[in-house]
Please model this.
Amino acid sequence: MFLLPGILLIFLFFLAPVVITAVMGFTNMDYRFQWNFVGFGNFFRMSDDFLVPKILVNTLVYTFGTLAIFNVTFGLILALLTTSISERVGLFFRALWLLPRFTPPVVYAAIWLWILSPTRNGLLNGLRVAMGLNPIAWISEYPWGVIIVTNGIIGASMGMLIFASAIKAIPRDYLWAARVDGASWFQEVRHIVLPLIRWPLMFITAYQTLSLLTSYEYILLITQGGPFHASEVWSLYAYNKAFSAYAGTYEFGYAAALATVLVLIGTVASIAYWKMFRFREMMAPPRIEVS
Amino acid sequence: MRKLLLGLLIFGLAAGLVAAQEIKVITIKAWTVGPDDPSITRKLNLEAAVERLNKYLEVIGANVRVEIEATFVTTSWSDYKRANLLALQSGDPAKIADIIVTGHEDIGPYAEAGYIVPLDDFIAKYPEVYEDFFSALWESCTYKGKIWGIPQDTEARMFYYRKDLLKAAGYSEEFIESIPAKVVAGEFTLDDLVALGQKLLEAGVVDETMAIWHRPTPGTDWFQFIYTFGGELFDPETGKLVVDKSATLALFRFMKKLVDLKLTPSAMSQISWPEIHTNFSGGKVGINLTGGSWNFAEWQHAPYNKSFDYLWENIGFAPIPAAEKGGKPVSVSHPLVHVITAASQHKELAFLIVTLASAVDLNTRHALQSGHLAIRRSQLSFAPYAADIFAKTVSELCAPFARFSPNHPKAPFYWETLFRDGIVPVEVGALSPEDALEHFVKRMQTELGDEVIIRE
Model:
């Protein structure tokens, strides 16, 4: 009975949309919003869609690139560095890294568009021209790099926060004991900190994988998936199919089928992480009760 | 008993007085869009129409008044249309406006979905207004033999060039001033336009890749080049879209030429609108290939803040030149329309407001403030319009060559794909023009199936 509100919320906001999306994926619904069922038509169409392989590769590179470079590794480096210096300075730098997350997405994207502008008016190209170099079309030359960096700079702060609080929860005695034994900072990190923040590390990896798989707003604002689909990821492709251009081009049925595939990939990834990282052990009640 | 009767009498009189004075208010909702700021007159004119209507009602002594709740969106067309469609599909009159200002290309899909109503019977009631409209504009409002929208405005697309930069590159004033006439006569072609860009670059008047710029996004503008290269977009007999392979290839080759000659940046699609307008109106870019008449008004407002005199002196314009000598130039027009929704509870009244908002003086105010063109014949002789040299020149130069985007629900997909899967990959060097054509045709066929005819 106490769980009822929670269960209701989960049903309304998590399960119901998935079910509706999945059912819609079997229709050819367009701007007329009619539920005309077409069986597996959209899924066959996906297998014939010659853009799908390119978009799949983009999605994998984007998800695991951002995850490996920024959301986990860079987040961890930030957490380690800001917890190794004085508390006040550490707090200041952590707050600084949270700024991009607090910036409205449209403003954040506008700043990046100025930084990356292919003309000499852009920040990076302005610097290059000042050094006597030619401007570079950053988005054309490095479409993957652009989407990884622009998303990663925001994404790193989540890992940073979780890891920093986990590091601060490590009993100081361990670190003091290590220092008495002559351990260097790297040895402390390698042998004490990392093993003790294993669960948060694995949680962030799993959580951010799923989050990155479905995120596209910054890509939409900064590169629009271009040029020529070079930075278009699966969720953005689904969004574009549903809402790109104007009414006559909206394809809700096909977009829902694409989104359903994403839900399936997310579910498989969750189960894989659950097994691989043995999250059951993390969720298990402690063997001894500490009062 | 007498007291009771007296009481009832007084109550009755008081109630009668209140009833006589009680004024019924009808609220009409309208959605309007810029996205350019100066086009706010799309909203203001509807409000002015309601004000006029209320004045008449007051004079007549009618105990009804009209209120209008109008919105004006300045973000982007796609945001506006997405929000409108999501509200329209709910079918809920509380959520849906009575009047919507939108692009004529929405008439097909909206009519098919039953979101809007045909207006032929309403139009017949006000011949004094609607017979004055330019007949070509009705074509863009017609779908399956019925009229579904009332033209709100129209514009002309053209290329703009910097007269001051051409002069600095060594062209004579006489030549510069003769460009529009030569374009109209078919003597000045797209190749001549390229030559202007090359000269600007060679003379060092503009930096590399700053000679010829174009819009960074898809749009009906790109259809102009299919027309100018001799292609067609629509087959009226079958009602299907047409991909003309040779015209499309000519367009892709033309775009590659602009990039290869270092006239246009390969990353043109990544430059923001404000940067494009700042550089062109500020005299850093020589030619704006895909301009529109509304740009002239835009550049007079923040953040560009150029005076009319400065622009008129330094910037010239003409329709998109023919591809070959002796050919016809082209200017694709994109009329905006007022539509009346099926969900409206006051269709007749909403239509009357649109009719009043189409008054010569109101529409002229809109046209002149926002860089649009007249929709009614009598506007041409209306003093403020006739005295506006920009509106007059655009009407003379471009109107005779006006073409429209096809009224087909998938037309926006066509121009999106033409740009994102054709022009962009050619410009960034991801595909050769020939490969881009193959990819474009394949994508159009895969996505549109038998709704598109491919011609060699």
Remarks:
- The CA atoms of residues 1 and 7 of chain A lie 10 Å apart.
- Chain A touches chain B through 31 residues (CB under 8 Å).
- The radius of gyration of chain A is 23 Å.
